[in-house]
Amino acid sequence: MLAKVFKYFYAGILVLLFVGSIAFFLYSLQSRANRLLSWDEVHYLEALKKGFWANWTESQTTNFIQFAQYSWAKACKDSVQIAQIIQKLPTEEQDLHILRHFHPVLPIYIWLLIYQISPSHWVEIQSFLLLILLLGLICLYLQTWELRIIVASLLLTSNYLNETYQIANFHSFFSVVGLFFFYCLQKYLLHKDVKNRILLAFSIACLILTLETYIFLIAFSASSYIMNWFIRQKSTVFRSYFQEVIQILALVVVFISILQIGFWRSGGSFKSWAYYVYRIFFAQNDDYQTVSWIGVLQHFALNHLVFSICLVIISVVFLQKNKEVSLHIQVMLMTYTAYLFLIAIFTVHTSYLVPALVGLAVGCGQIIEQNKLNLQLKTGVAISILCELAWHFYYYPFQKTLQQNQQAQQDMAFVIRLAQSVAYPILADGNHVFNFYAQSQQFKQLRTMSLLHPDFYERIHYRNFNRRHNIQQKEYAAVILLKEMRNYTTKDFNFLINAGYHLVELQDYRCFIRKDLLRD
Questions:
Q1: pLDDT score, position 323
Q2: Which end of the chain has fewer CB atoms at under 10 Å, N or C?
Q3: CA 31 to each of CA 17, 35, 120, 413: distance values in angstroms, whole numbers, following the listed order
Q4: Cα(210)–Cα(347) distance, rounded to whole angstroms?
């Protein structure tokens, strides 16, 4: 009798957990209603508006030869050669690869389809699509409804996942495509038939066309399998796979050519990797100097306390029992753990960590399912996640987020009214966002040139021009500085004030307006 009551109690906890986590996702989505598109999202929207053909053929971006020539001239600091090359390049502000922030094309296709359905709610529809895809993949991986609910609730309770899935973001798509890849990989290694070979090749092609960090998932997983084969002295098995690997790679090439023929013309991933190599090794790693690797991992663990504890326990207890844990599950967990530790070095936004969070959660669910935990332990895990969900419900700033979005709308309206009232250009950090909402080209692109020691540059077709003198000559109606991730100092602010500009503090920006243009 007591066991039956306990079973009903466990079922009730699962129902509460699932309903509560879905409600948390929807409530947090509602708190972002009517928000402005972010810096990245405006660029992605401009990219998708170019249409399918332009993105499929990469007709509006530099080809790989042009990119290599420009990169070499820049590395050699040959200003004459640089000037000659950039005259032949597509307009930087319209270059599709730049608009996609050097990311691949697959999410653009999906956004393009959604945009045709609802231009004003394409981001919200994307959020529901990602939620459905995630839940569907969890159902494919896990066979029991109780573990499906536990893993899904654990993920939907995460602020990281909520915030990432509810904005237009490449990492959110990479998290579901990564799960799809490992599912196809596991199926293929269990049954090496033609259907699974084709599915695996398709999943790899999708991975390649979703985010450039696919190289880490493929490299880590392949290395894990190869090491296992050699450790178990089964190198002959490894050699027998060589022909199949060649066939799969050939299919990957075919699928990439179908999904984006311009991948080969533009250089695809190689351009993206070259860009990051330049930023890390030749630009003094300026973008990532403020990132604390330990701090990122600590923040991740504290925001997913129940999951982190479960992950440690599983790693210590279950992964020691090699015979009791499927090799494929071990590889998946090791790959995503390596991905988490590596990507943490470059994490300027928590969305970077979401693919690792999703992969590790599903992998842990598989281990728990395979080892058949008793009802008491599963109930304890479910109650812990429910407590964490209640904690997030209590502390998540739903109302504050809604108010911040409303304030951002008001600030944008203020800046647009300013622009419409004057004929002078405005030098703005994130000028494309203001131009998008103002439907103008009045806002000029401000470049700091250095996050740690910023200055006032204007970016015009691959070139940066120092505008301190122009600011002093009052050639701009205003100078708008983004507050977040900008290290302008009091000295910089005083320079603008002494040049005849008045500071107006907005929520996300410091807006310096020419005093003679201010109205009483």
A1: 54
A2: C
A3: 21, 9, 17, 20
A4: 18
Closest CA relative to residue 501, chosen from 460, 464, 473: 473
Tokens of 362: 């599903």
The whole-number pLDDT of residue 33 equals 80
Sign of the dihedral through C-alpha 216, 222, 228, 230: negative
With vertex at residue 98, the alpha carbon angle to CA 92 and CA 99, rounded to the nearest 5 degrees, is: 100
For 292-325, what is each residue's pLDDT tens digit? 788 888 888 888 888 888 777 777 666 565 555 6
pLDDT given at position 279: 67
Radius of gyration of the chain (CA): 25
Return the closest-CA partner of residue 291 out of 354, 232, 349, 234.
349
What is the model's pLDDT at position 176? Answer: 97
d(CA 490, CA 383): 50
Cα–Cα distance for residue pair 76/95, rounded to 1 Å: 23
User: β-strands 457-460, 443-447: how paired?
Assistant: antiparallel
Q: What DSSP element (H or E) covers 468?
A: helix 468-472
Report the distance separating Cα 282 and Cα 297, nearest Å.
Answer: 26
Q: Give how far Cα 388 sits from Cα of 20, 304, 365, 382, 393, Å.
A: 11, 8, 18, 10, 9
- pLDDT tens-digit series, residues 282-292: 655 556 666 67
For helices 122-141 and 106-117, the axis angle rounded to 10 degrees is: 120
pLDDT band, very low/low/confident/very high, at 364 (cuts 50, 70, 90):
confident
Kindly report whether the global pTM for this prediction surpasses the value 0.85.
Answer: yes
Distance in angstroms (rounded) separating the CA atoms of residues 307 and 155: 9
* Rounded distance between C-alpha atoms, residue 498 and residue 496, angstroms: 5
Residue 164 — very low, low, confident or very high, per pLDDT cuts 50/70/90?
Answer: very high
From residue 332, alpha-carbon distances to 151, 213, 350, 405, 429 in Å are: 16, 16, 21, 39, 41
- CA dist 61 and 274 (Å) reads 16
Read off φ and ψ for residue 71, nearest 5 degrees: -65, -40
DSSP string, 311-337: HHHHHHHTTT-GGGS-HHHHHHHHHHH
69-78, 164-173, 315-324: which is most confident:
164-173
Beta strand 426-428 with 443-447: parallel, antiparallel or unpaired?
A: parallel
Q: How far apart are CA 303 and CA 200, in angstroms?
A: 34
Cα separation, 68 vs 376, whole angstroms? 60
